[in-house]
Design a protein that fits this description.
The complex is a heterodimer of chains A (about 375) and B (about 300).
Chain A lengths: L3 E10 L2 E11 L4 E5 L6 H9 L6 E6 L2 E2 L10 E4 L11 H11 L4 H14 L15 H13 L5 E5 L7 H18 L2 E6 L2 H7 L2 E6 L2 E6 L1 H6 L4 H6 L6 E8 L2 E4 L3 E4 L2 H10 L4 E6 L4 E3 L5 E10 L3 E7 L6 E7 L9 E6 L5 E3 L14
Parallel strand pairs in A: 3-8, 3-9, 6-7, 7-8
Antiparallel strand pairs in A: 1-2, 1-4, 4-5, 9-10, 11-12, 11-14, 12-13, 14-20, 15-19, 16-17, 16-19, 17-18
Chain B lengths: L2 H16 L3 H30 L2 E2 L9 E2 L3 H7 L2 H33 L5 H13 L2 H12 L5 H5 L17 H26 L3 H9 L4 H29 L3 H6 L11 H10 L5 H32 L1
Antiparallel strand pairs in B: 1-2
Helix pairs in contact in B: 4-8, 4-10, 5-8, 8-10, 10-13, 12-13
The chains are: A alpha+beta (about 375), B mainly alpha (about 300).
């Protein structure tokens, strides 16, 4: 399995950057997810790694070998396309053995490898059908089989579950995860679905506006977002963000609220903030509604999510809404005044000017 | 009954008289076409079928005389006509074969977008738009051994160059060449639309699957274009069996009978010399049956291709 390195890789269309110069190392056997909204450059990045798209700058290394200008066929990578890209005029069997025939793998060997893969993905009964008569999930399995049968150095997947129904996506997600663990293959996976990214990725690369916003494992990007974009983009709903003013260990929030900043955050805040403007952030599960809570709000709305309820609280005006996650049996009437606390371990601070997260000590 | 309802009924009646029903309008529109179709297509079809069982000449002034299958028997036992069928088959094979190869190759070249590719495509299509008789006459001039440019271009100025059309060895090839020149663009056009319909992602997938250009051509391009290519071949085969005007413009079937294709021979029987209308009708029906059976084979193969795709 291979290590993939991107060094200052960029893609420009005319003057416009589709991908700004980016550095990224994907370790051997790692499952890395490129996550971002549509148009953020994640698919372009993937296509540059595959060689389907030429870079306009920088270098790509596969196991230390510079493959920047090699044809896709010379890179030893497999690519799973969003809409499968199966050969419509061939049977499933011919589709799967196509890459082996293209490389003139001896017939016995090819036969053996095809039957292994087909058994693993449980598509033996489809071998003599054509892609046109298969369901979405089966097409995806065939596409995966075609990629796996080659035993490439790395797998690239471009929203492979994007064309499937919701419940099918979930079971295919598990299948992909299992395949990755079984094959321990270096995988780069593109998606705009943060749940998918969280579920699959060893590491997540959050992209927006043609550049990397943050690289980290799922817990890092979720609990320690590097900037406001990541804070909003990850999680559903995203992180609660309220603007306030910091002075002497207290953040003054809308609705005459005062939030006492945990001890460990005071020095970094005093140091980083020039005029005291700050954005305070916390996840819905990091807030707790209690009678003696430090912050006052009123219930704006509440909705049932099955396993839990989400209470929308207004701090002062209705433009300052925070979401708080509560147990499913707790409900409030609209406009009930409530008080809540924020878990000191779950609170984050952002500089509204740079939009970056403030850091505390060595960590965050 | 009140006065108002009576009046309303009268109005309705008057309208009824004036109105033409939808059905009448339909018939009025369809009728002229039907009449023409019956007069010009269906009647001749059946009348010639009848004539093919008779001894009859349009210029003889005698009524058709029923002779059963005599005409068919005579034609099918004539070695000359078998020879012409063989010649036509050879012509069709050579001409359609070359058109397929050249047309497909041209489509592969023009498919890539380059500066002026649209203009070049249009230029290539011109031969197809010309009248076959004009094409025949022009090529007769080009082939002419005394003043034709072909021999000059081949580096054989008169009197050294061959007389292509008068030489029994070359004459059929000369006709084939003109047919290929004229109709390869047609094959190209169909192939081009087939090629342009192949989605780019199939080639991307093939590149990822490490297929060479040659492998991609055989395993993706060709099978994807096959249905349209088959239609082109079907059309050209039918046309080859009916080939008449270019031959008449070039050689008139000569030298001797070196380019006497069945359609030319049929014309000779029907409209020259004795005007053997009865025999000509039988001959025409034989050609028709052959064309229909060949077409059937193609269409069956085509459906098979489509069913699989």
């Amino acid at each position: 399995m291979a290590t993939i390195e991107l060094r200052q890789v960029e893609k420009k269309f005319g003057q416009l950057h589709a991908v700004k110069p980016m550095d990224l190392t994907i370790h051997s056997g790692e499952f890395v997810v490129l996550l971002g909204p549509s148009g953020c450059g994640k698919t372009t990045t993937l296509r540059m790694i595959s060689g389907l798209e030429a870079v306009t700058g920088g270098h790509i290394y596969l196991d230390g070998r510079d493959v920047t200008w090699l044809h896709p066929s010379e890179r030893d990578i497999a690519f799973v396309f969003q809409f499968f890209a199966l050969y419509p005029h061939m049977t499933v069997l011919d589709n799967i053995r196509f890459p082996l025939q293209a490389q003139r793998v001896p017939r016995d060997e090819a036969e053996k490898r095809v039957s292994e893969i087909v058994k693993m993905l449980q598509i033996e009964h489809l071998l003599h059908l054509r892609p046109g008569s298969l369901s979405g999930g089966d097409r995806q399995r065939v596409a995966l089989a075609r990629a796996l049968v080659r035993r490439p150095a790395a797998f690239l997947m471009d929203e492979p579950l994007g064309a499937l129904d919701a419940d099918l996506r979930e079971s295919m997600r598990a299948e992909i995860k299992r395949l990755h663990i079984a094959n321990n293959a270096t995988t780069v996976y593109v998606t705009h679905d943060q749940l998918e990214a969280m579920a699959l990725g060893d590491r997540i690369v959050v992209m927006s506006a043609a550049e990397i916003q943050q690289v980290g494992n799922p817990a890092e990007v979720y609990y320690k977002p590097a900037n406001l974009f990541v804070a909003r983009f990850i999680g559903s709903p995203g992180m609660n963000l309220i603007s306030g003013r910091y002075a002497d260990g207290v953040v003054y929030l809308p609705g005459d609220n005062r939030y006492t900043v945990p001890e460990s955050w005071r020095a970094p805040l005093a140091q980083a903030l020039k005029d005291g403007e700050v954005i305070i952030g916390f996840r819905p599960e990091s807030a707790r509604i209690t009678e003696d809570g430090a912050l006052a709000a009123r219930v704006y709305a509440s909705d049932m999510h099955g396993a839990f309820n989400m209470i929308h609280l207004a701090l002062g005006e209705e433009s300052n809404i925070v979401n708080v996650r509560v147990d499913r049996w707790i409900t409030y009437a609209l406009d009930t005044p409530v008080r809540f606390d924020i878990d000191p371990e779950g609170v984050r601070f952002f500089d509204p000017r740079s939009e970056k997260a403030l850091r505390r000590g060595g960590a965050q | 009954m009140t006065a108002t309802t009576l009046q309303a009924e009268k109005v309705a009646q008057r309208h009824h008289v004036r109105r033409i029903s939808d059905k009448t309008i339909q018939t009025a529109f369809i009728l002229p076409t039907m009449v023409l179709l019956i007069l010009w297509n269906i009647f001749p079809l059946f009348y010639s079928l009848y004539l093919s069982f008779t001894e009859y000449s349009v210029i003889a002034g005698a009524p058709p005389k029923w002779i059963g299958f005599e005409n068919y028997r005579n034609i099918l036992s004539s070695p000359l006509i078998w020879k012409y069928f063989a010649l036509t088959g050879r012509f069709a094979l050579l001409s359609v074969g070359l058109q397929t190869i050249i047309g497909f190759a041209m489509a592969m070249i023009v498919r890539a977008k380059f500066r002026g590719s649209g203009f070049i495509t249009t230029l290539i299509l011109i031969p197809m738009m010309l009248s076959p008789v004009v094409v025949g006459k022009f090529w007769a001039m080009i082939y002419n051994p005394t003043f034709g440019p072909l021999n000059y271009l081949l580096g054989m100025p008169p009197p050294r160059g061959p007389d292509w059309l008068a030489n029994p060895q070359f004459a059929l090839w000369a006709v084939v060449l003109v047919d290929v020149w004229m109709w390869s663009p047609f094959v190209m056009l169909l192939c081009l639309s087939g090629l342009k319909a192949i989605p780019e992602y199939l080639y991307e997938a093939a590149a990822i699957d490490r297929a060479s250009a040659w492998f991609q051509f055989w395993r993706i391009t060709l099978p994807q274009v096959a249905p349209l290519l088959m239609i082109a071949i079907l059309f050209r085969t039918i046309e080859a069996f009916k080939q008449f005007d270019v031959v008449m413009g070039l050689t008139g079937g000569g030298p001797g009978d070196a380019t006497e294709l069945v359609a030319v021979n049929l014309y000779r029987i029907a409209f020259l010399g004795r005007f053997d209308t009865g025999i000509a009708s039988a001959f025409a029906y034989i050609v028709l049956i052959i064309i229909i059976s060949i077409s059937n084979l193609y269409i069956r193969y085509l459906n098979q291709l489509r069913g699989e795709a």
